[in-house]
User: What shape does this take?
Amino acid sequence: DAKTTQPPSMDCAEGRAANLPCNHSTISGNEYVYWYRQIHSQGPQYIIHGLKNNETNEMASLIITEDRKSSTLILPHATLRDTAVYYCIGQGDMRFGAGTRLTVKP
Amino acid sequence: EAEVAQSPRYKITEKSQAVAFWCDPISGHATLYWYRQILGQGPELLVQFQDESVVDDSQLPKDRFSAERLKGVDSTLKIQPAELGDSAMYLCASSLEGHNYEQYFGPGTRLTVT
Assistant: This one.
C-alpha cells in the first residue's frame, strides 16, 4: 500500500496552469494513483486516476513519472472555482492524507 | 446524474447519547464506504462494505461504533454512546466494485457532540 506525500498548500493565478505534485515512492507496480478534490463543506470529488501512462480528461491531466514514484496533477487553466484541497491516493488502501490546499487567486 | 444521498446533513447531540447516520449509495454500486473527517484533516476510512459484507473495519472503534448494510443497498452508521471527540463530518461513498473504480461521495453529515 502506498503512502503519499503532498505539499500542504499552493497558490496559483487565475487562468494559469496549476501543477500539484505528489510523491508515492512506495507504490506497488499494479497500484493505481487516484486524485480527488474537496471544495469547502462538500464531499470529495473524483478527478482522475492512472497507472503508468499519462492521462487526460475534461477536468485535468495526470503525469506519472516513469519510475512511478511521483505524479503531477495539472489543471491547465485554473479558475477561482478550482480552489480546494486536492488529495493524491494509492489505490491499495485509499487512505487520504492532509492533501494540498490550492488557492486560485484573481 | 445519480448521487450518493446522506441524512441528516447536520446533527447536534449530547455526549452519551446515541446517534445514527444513513447513506443511500448510487444504484448498482456494490462497494460502500464510511469515512470520518475531522476539521483540517483528510477523510479517514471507518468501514468498507462489499454488498452486505464488511471488507475492512480495522479503523472502526468497535466499542461504540457499528455499521450495517443489511440488504446490500443502503447503510446505517451508529455511535453509542457519543463522545465529544466524535464531532466531525461523516462521509459516505460508493463505487462500482472495490478499489478498482472511483468513489462517489455524498454531501456528508456534520456531527456536533456537546
